[in-house]
Amino acid sequence: MIRTWTLFIIISLFPLFAFSQQQSNQLVNKRDSLMPGMSTSIPFTLENPSTENKIYDISVATSSPLISPILAKGESQIAPHETSVYLVPVRIATETAQGNYSVTLNITDRSNGTSFTKTSHITVSGNRKLSLTVLDSPEFTRAGEAIRASFLLKNNGNVTENLILESKNAIIDHDDAITLVPNESKIITIHKATNPELGQNEFQNLNLSVYSQGNPKENQSVYTSTQVISVKPSNIDIYHRLPVAASLSFIGMKNMGVYHDGFQGEIYGKGTLDKENKNQIEFRAVTHNPVEFNAFTQYEEYFVNYRRDNLFVHLGDKTYSSSYLTEFARYGRGAEIRYDFNKVSLGGFYNHPRFFRDIKDEFNFYSAFKIRKESEISVGYLYKMPRKEDPNLGNIRLDSQAHLPYAKGKFKISKNINISGEFAYSTTEKTEGTAYMAQAEVSFERWNGNLLYMKASPEFAGYFTNTSTFSGNIQYRLSKKISVFANYMQDAKNFQRDTLFLAAPYRKYFQYGIQYKYLPSGFVILNNGYQKYQDRLEPKQFDYYERFFRVSINQQIGIFLVNLEGQFGKTDNYLTGFNGNSSFYSANLSFEKFRTSFNIFGSYGLTSRYQMLNQKQVYYGARIISRFSDKTNMSIFYQNNYIPEEYFKDRNLFELVFHQQLFPGNDLDLSGRYSLQRGQIGDKDFIFSIRYTWRPNIPVQKTAEYISLSGNISNLGIKRTEGIRLMLGSYLSVTDKEGNYLFKNVIPGNYFLEIDRSTTEINDIPTVTFPAALSLASKENTFNFGLAPAAGIQGHIECLETEEKNLSDIESLQAKKGKKKRESIVIEAVCNDQTYRKICFIGDDFDFTYLKPGEWTVKLYRNGLDKRYKISTDKFQFTLKPSETKKLSIHIIKQQIEVKYQQESLKVGYNEIKNKK
């Protein structure tokens, strides 16, 4: 019998034990993950081990005033040998910081006065929650005025935040590092200056970003946009114009002791003939050069070209080219035409060379077939006619007509590899010849390279003859800091250049090296190799072969960029027959300060390249470019001399250039130079120039007609509507006695209509939003509006408390906080597209002034208001009449917390089973 009862009791109580254990674990877990702003119950286990009924008086205390017991006092009655669970409801304030807290029961036995305590530990979890919203931002502002915007930043979490404020396009009005304690908010203001010279209306954005110092990735950004109204709008043109520049220069030159001067005129234009930009044209006319031509003066030139869709036509002077092998570059006077079909292009040119004595005329025809977007094949034919009528030309190379068919192509093999090539054949009355060229380019992530090989037979009648050339370079990046490279170059020896310029020296060189970037602002290059230079002119000034090692260091130090270079080599001088050492040292320093850039350089060499063994060479100079303003700049250059390898070209020894914009479209340029002419070693020439340029921009197509804007200002209770000044961009108008206004001869476009507030009463307000955005396109446009006395809204925010309810066994529902915090709300007033917001504290007055009459809606937002507070009415709708001030009363009700609890305690006990005899 006893066994049966025991088994029955175990089976009956097992679910209760299991449930009790589960509840205990849940309560423990719950205490470990409490969130701020919530209410919860903390369980305490009370036990009566005696044989008498016990009544305990209980009071509750917490370790923080932000954790307040909802039932601060109570009692518990426990039967003998029973255990009871006493639940303590507590409220955790929103601003309670993350951390560990304790709840303590002070227990007193009513029968004998014995006191003891029980403590339970709870953990409040961290809650990081920031909010950033736009509080106030202007919809419009005038150019030259600052755009000011305010944002509301609030810490809605329970963790103190150390925050960083940033703005990419505006200035923050206070420290960019702030600290917000839980539930604290702050108004952040930023501003941005606008350009008073703004030529047309435009939108400008302001942004504000905030992030915690320890969590930069948790970035919050808010943007606001404001339209800036130009106060000095640029004149909008009703004509489509062609940019044209006409100039007149007076040039003087003393050349080898002989002085010449004269005037030279130029006109140049490039643009389109229609507003759709379909008909493109370019032209230039430069009159005869009054002095001997060099690199610093212009040669006479006349040309015009036209392009539309797939058609291109050129008439006049230019550098004509058929292909790399047949005629790479030949300056002359002629004509060219090209038409592009879908995949096929046809074209040709006629050219009468101006600076090459062998050729009288040449004709070219070609066709190109496009395989893909970047791949095509071309075939063509070039016909050259020799110059025979002048017997004083002496020995000429082309003595009969030449026929040169050719084929060329370029192919994009992949996104990393491009190849191109050409084959040409020539025939004259006496000779035949061939030439070919191949080129490859590769570009990968870590390495890139270029190779070119060309060969022309001895009898080939193209641009190159009896020559071959090879060039190539490759670079490989070993790492982010280290790269290796190699370069090889061999110039072509026989090519038919124009006689207007002298030929550069024949070069053949090879070098390889390594580049090491030791700092983000500095790198060093080490290279080794050989080079061969041979003068093409007679008598030769140099002919040598040199093996060298070079070191170059480039370093940015603050605003200074420094370059140091040293070269050491062994030279075989073929001109004089001796061998010797050649070394060079150079330095270059550049920086920019006060709108001026400076460059200073110098070098020293001890060389065996020229006429003397161990010949000393010292070169130095400087260049200064100063931009005094957007309209004025000047540059000065000086260099004492140049190395002999550069004597084939014109070289500046001293140069002074001054530019001044007199007024828009009119410029004045002054320049003076001492120079060494091409082919000269020591003879210096002086050149000066005074140049005036006028840019008229010729109208070629009328794009719009002038329009008008008229309207009336209605009097809705103000003193007068006469004499009110209105502004429409750069246009002005004043109202008559009836309030009528008129703008004439307005260029179509988008405008803002503004009122000069100095011509109205201080309290007059328009019935529509101003500035008023208008899009004017019709011939006649009308815009009417009214002026009325401004209205307003005033009010007071009052806090009301509900009557305290009679709650049995409750002596206090809420503990006072140690830190008093003023509660606030956001008040928003909206009428159509106008919105105004204010943050207002409970117990304060508020107002909105200068409001236009009409339908208004006032909305109230909690702004983190404590949950115990309730907004009685959060929305008001009404109609404001002119001069009316609407009174509003806003009631915030502080609600008492009503707690209902079970009067009887939860009892957990056991029954004794006695043995019966």
Short description:
With 917 residues, the chain is mainly β. The protein is 3% helix and 60% strand.
Structure report:
- This protein is mainly beta and about 900 residues long.
- About 5% of the residues lie in helices and about 60% in strands.
- It contains one helix and 62 strands.
- The protein has a 26-stranded antiparallel barrel. The protein has a five-stranded mixed beta sheet with strand order 9-16-15-11-13, with no helix packed on it.
- The longest helix is centred in the N-terminal third of the chain and has 30 residues, at about 1-30.
- It is elongated, with a radius of gyration of 46 Å.
- Residues about 1-30, about 390-395, about 805-820 and about 905-915 have low confidence and may be disordered.
Biggest sheet descriptor: 26 strands, antiparallel, barrel
Radius of gyration: 46 Å
Query: Which term fits the overall shape?
Result: elongated
Number of strands: 62
Indicate the proportion of strand residues.
over 45%
Distance between the termini: 12 Å
Which parts are unreliable, with pLDDT below 50 for 5 consecutive residues or more?
1-30, 391-395, 803-819, 903-917
Helix content: under 10%
In round numbers, the mean pLDDT is 85
In DSSP terms (H or I, runs of 4 or more residues), the helix count works out at 1
Alpha-beta classification:
mainly beta
Keywords:
3% helix, disordered C terminus, mainly beta, 5-stranded mixed β-sheet, 917 residues
